[in-house]
Amino acid sequence: MPRRPFHLPRYSVLASLPLLAMCLAIGVPAPAATAKPVPPNAKLPTKPQDPAFLPPLPDTPATPVAPAGTPRPGQSKPGAPEPTRLQQSPFARAVIANFSRWDTDADGLLSAEEVEQQVLNPENTGPVAAAVAALHGRFWRAEGEARKPLSRAFFSELAKPKAPPDRASKPAGITVLPASTPSATAPATTQAATSPGRAPGTDDDQDSEKDLEMRYSRAVQQIRTAPRSLYNGGTPDLPDCRQGAIGSCFVIAPVGAFVHRNPADVTKLIDALGGEKLGWYRIQFASGDAVEIPPFTEAELGLAGASTRGGLWVRVLEKAFGTRKLKPEDREDQVARDEIGKGGSGASTIRILTGNQTVNIRLLGDWTKPLTPKDETPQAKAEADKAKADLDKALSQLRNQLPEALAAKRLIVTGTPATNVPTSISPRHAYAVFAFDAQADTITLWNPHSSNFTPKGPEGLANGYARKDGLLTLPLTDYARIFRGINIETDKPLTAPVK
User: Fold this and answer.
1) pLDDT band at residue 88, thresholds of 50, 70 and 90?
2) Strand 109-110 relative to strand 442-446: parallel, antiparallel, unpaired?
3) What does the pLDDT look like over 152-197, one tens digit per residue?
4) What are the DSSP calls for 96-154, one per residue?
5) CA angle at residue 227 from 89 to 265, to 5 degrees?
6) Residue 43, CB half-sphere, CA atoms under 13 Å: how many?
7) Contact, 442 vs 473, CB < 8 A?
């Protein structure tokens, strides 16, 4: 009797897949799959997950199994080094694609002024805006060779596919044109990758290729994640008030004290405009003056600045204070954030925010000054006596004025000197004062960077002071020795405009 051919069940082709897999595993030739014909007038199913709705699978021959360890197509042989995968700079590609548009004077160079105009151009968005922000960060506050215009040839070289950089290697230098070179084809000079006294990761960082790529990556992330609303959580909050990588502590420290006193005071400062100025903000300062700022461009959001995790309100205040420092005729052509980065007076910020005068107490400002003579010479005795007298005077004023000012919830900011500060204390930096404990004779400060620090040993001048979310408490005597001055809001209204 002839052997009947083997057929798959007719109810479904997909149901036969387990059987096909088993046959392939044991080396039995796979049976042919036959699909059930669909009559012309049959009602088709409506659910995509119904197997009958799917087209029939074609006959699939068995695929021989390769021996273990056999490399796949394009894969290196076992033991062979992986081929180097070349990388192309997305930053450089973005610049090259827009170079002609940004080079407004068509001289083949991108200058700091041309890049600044692109920061204020809302047409630059996404990665293009991030490239503008990276370039502006490179030019901002740069001097000498670092501020020379960059040629198209520089970016073309940067855009060439390269092997991933060796993490252990030093960053490459950046090629810039000498001041006397009028064209991109002239000889170039190389600037060192590092600059003395400039902190890594900030807008004062070295002007290197690696730095440009870092700025670009950071700007892409900031543009992608920055909210477009004024307040994320409905109202301002101190944890959302955090200084970025520019020198805006003289603004952020008083603003932090302002929020700490009463978050509603911030909402009274800022008004969102509508109509033809939809997206604009008007900031009415208690000092009597007001400024209006346009919507943030994406390139502005990509620049270093205050944290945006709680909304744009801190950036709005930064931009408002920067706009206020600019001349009215320059406000449409210059980046307001840059004015904030140049530094300023915390006392002036208090006056602008509150409309009240401030009083200053001068502190010692150098904790290394000996309070007892270091030797028996008359000069050593005179220096120690003066330092001790200055310290006693400052402590007396602090103990007399701090309790009253804090009880009245007045704003207080204090500042450090540029040098001779102990571990955990930032030099040339503004802090807000939040509390004074007369019984313990301690003072509580807030660092607007809102960072943490754990001393390696007992707290004090030698090991520093513990800091959590920017808050630190230290003995009043240590404070008066370290810090150089303190400014306290009074209840007396201003009698003259604040510059």
Assistant:
1) confident
2) unpaired
3) 999 998 888 876 655 444 443 333 333 333 333 333 333 332 333 3
4) HHHHHHH-TT-SSEE-HHHHHHHHT-TT--HHHHHHHHHHHHHHTT--GGGGS-EEHHH
5) 140
6) 3
7) yes
Structure tokens at 365: 């400002």
- Report the distance separating Cα 159 and Cα 405, nearest Å: 58
Predicted confidence (pLDDT) per residue in 291-312, tens digit: 999 999 999 999 999 999 999 9
The pLDDT value recorded for residue 84 is: 52
Strands 290-293 and 356-362: unpaired
Residue ranges per domain, the chain?
A: 1-39, 90-164+199-225, 238-344, 356-493
**How many CA atoms are closer than 13 Å to the CA of 391, on its beta-carbon side?**
22
Instruction: Of 87, 68, 207, 197, give the one whose Cα is nearest residue 135.
Output: 207
Match domain 356-493 to its CATH number in 1.20.120.1760, 3.90.70.10, 3.40.30.10, 3.30.460.90: 3.90.70.10
What local confidence, expressed as pLDDT, does residue 271 receive? Answer: 96
Neighbouring-strand partners of residue 460: 464
Write out the two tokens for 434. 């939040």
Q: Is 453 within 8 Å of 464 (Cβ atoms)? A: yes
Q: How far, in Å, CA of 368 to CA of 370, rounded?
A: 6
Q: Is the pLDDT of residue 25 over 80?
A: no
Contacts of 139 (CB under 8 A, 6+ apart): 112, 115, 116, 146, 147
